[in-house]
Specification:
The structure is a single chain. This protein has 229 residues and is of the alpha/beta class. Helices cover 33% and strands 24% of the residues. The protein has one domain: P-loop containing nucleotide triphosphate hydrolases (Rossmann fold), CATH 3.40.50. The C terminus is likely disordered.
Length: 229
């Protein structure tokens, strides 16, 4: 998914936090790692790209579509159809098991051609790659934090979306699983020519990414981000 951002402005009401990004182009199929200090706007940036938060001005183009021109329902449809999101707090459904959580994007999709048999094969591929096979039918409340995180990653990758947004996807994993998850995500997006944007505080994980964006370089004032000219 080709992404073009122009004159993007966002402000949190009541907090004084402001985010501005005059111009940014991320090519389709690119893998981008975003690093930078806490509070610099990394998570906010992902939520703007996902259409979860709404900019006060500017544009985010996914190809010919301007996300910022869409209403809430339209942004949600784009997210369901084209974006896989790994949330920092996972947002798993506690009363569903691992497999059912992974299948959630397929069940919610309003324009989905995938059959149940194809989804079963896809789930098997992902749980095997992420070392979740033994807990595939296990309830979420019985999982460790690392197992929850790997379940959230499998869910984001299920439908092979054109854009994968990952907010600290390795934060609760041990060193070996961090590398496994990073390499899996890079391999998946390369295989399907998707775009990956990953926020991480662990700079040892940025190896292999096409591009690294350090939000510390954009910080001109406290709680404000702007891309230098």
């Amino acid at each position: 998914m080709d992404i073009r951002i122009e004159s993007l402005q966002f402000r949190w009401a009541h907090s004084g936090f402001e985010f501005s990004l005059p111009s940014l182009h991320i090519e389709s199929g690119a893998s981008v790692a975003i690093v930078g200090p806490s509070g610099s706007g990394k998570t906010t940036f992902l939520k703007l790209l996902a259409g979860i938060e709404e900019a006060i001005s500017g544009s985010i183009h996914f190809g010919p579509v301007n996300l910022t021109d869409q209403n809430g329902n339209q942004r949600r449809a784009i997210r369901q159809r084209s974006i896989g999101y790994v949330f920092q707090d996972f947002k798993l459904i506690e009363y569903l098991n691992v497999e059912e959580n992974i299948l959630t994007p397929w069940r919610l999709s309003e324009c989905n051609d995938h059959t149940k048999s194809k989804m079963d094969v896809r789930v098997s591929e992902l749980v095997d790659a992420l070392r979740l096979t033994a807990m595939q039918r296990r309830p979420i409340h019985q999982l460790s934090q690392g197992e929850r995180q790997r379940t959230a990653i499998a869910r984001a990758l299920l439908l092979k979306p054109g854009l994968v947004l990952a907010d600290e996807p390795t934060g609760n994993l041990d060193p070996a699983n961090k590398i496994i998850v990073r390499d899996l995500m890079l391999a998946e997006i390369a295989r399907q020519n998707s775009t990956l944007i990953m926020v991480t505080h662990d700079r040892s994980l940025v190896e292999g990414f096409d591009r690294i964006i350090d939000f510390a370089d954009f910080q001109s004032e406290p709680n404000q981000i702007s891309k230098p000219s």
